[in-house]
Amino acid sequence: MDLGDIRYRPETGCAAQADLRHDSLTATAPPAERWLLIESRSAWPRQALTSLRNSSSGAELGDVVARRCRELSIRPVLIRRYGRVDRTGPRRWGLVDCRPGRELVRWGDLPTDEHLLNVLAGKDLGLVSTAPVYLVCTHGRHDACCAVRGRPVAAALTAAYPERTWECSHIGGDRFAANIVVLPHGLFYGHVAPTRAVELAKQYDEGAVVPDLLRGSGAFVPPVQAAQHFARAAGHSPAVDNLLPQTVEVIGEHRWRILLASTNGTASGSSPARRLIAVEVSARLDTVDARLTCAGSSPAQIRHFELHNLTTA
């Protein structure tokens, strides 16, 4: 595990400093509607896809895969198992759709890195899996805090769910380490302690999120993530499929009105009552004298969302 600069100390790293500042997790999930998971058994470089190797001459495979993923709006990450790796079996690829109503995970074998181009072209559809996937960022060469805080979390999840859990390369939000992504719903969690990692998985199995650790779902833009957060804080259900956005309206500079569909409560019978929640939020950038990553510079800017109005029809 590469922890980067030898002067690094966990107690002064970007994640520890974010803890001390009480940085908000709200609406910090980066966009990620679809994912390409690439099993890798070599050391991860700082830029993950540069580890991909093509057997024929031509453009660097990592650049080709990255470009194709951008065209398809797919987030590529490297994955590996925690601990000792069995190198006798085939490597795997995964393709995940996180879009509401389309949530799906497909897995297939990865004989060569170049086979990823067949996967992205739809020539290998793999097999559908109903099991969730837990990604834990442990990319120490990108940020030491991710490895220091992520590996104990990966160990805890692996002990409980060995087939579902993978370490992964950089996913964003280093200061929120340990970071977990739960697929296929694309739920980003931050500041996860090993003692709470299994709780997240159990809640997901029961169809619910854990609001106090939730950064948001990458399937939604940040204003929607913020609206969902404020709706849950107001007492609406933490069910995974609740609070889906119906409309997103820009009503001013850095201000939005979002309609969410909620199924809180019941109607006159036993069926859930569907209600619309109108949430008005705004965003501002605050300058802080801090580094948001261990390799970053100071000062930096942090985006905060504010609730202006929340009404239920």
TrEMBL record:
Coiled coil: none annotated. This is Sucrase ferredoxin. The lineage of its organism: Bacteria, Bacillati, Actinomycetota, Actinomycetes, Propionibacteriales. CDD domains: TRX_Fd_Sucrase. Signal peptide: none annotated. Pfam families: Suc_Fer-like (PF06999). It comes from Kribbella pratensis. It comes from the Bacteria.
